[in-house]
Amino acid sequence: MALIVYNRENSRPQEVTYKGKRTINLDSRGTVYLSKTMSIELGILGGGRVNFAHDDETGDWYICRADDSEGFIVWKDKRCARFS
């Protein structure tokens, strides 16, 4: 097993590297940030709701826009989608 330790020096995204890419970031308070590119593709930039799903068999995670009141509320922000 190759263990990679992530810290402040190697886990901060560089704008040049990640500009235009789909990224998900978490902060120490539990706020989730989806990149502007990903937010636009999901149709949640500037507000909306999202759901997360986990497949027990494959271990894969999914995120999708939610049209009901059950999803996480996305804050109104034009830079990225964020919620907690």
TrEMBL record:
It comes from the Bacteria. This is Mobilization protein. It comes from Phocaeicola vulgatus (Bacteroides vulgatus).
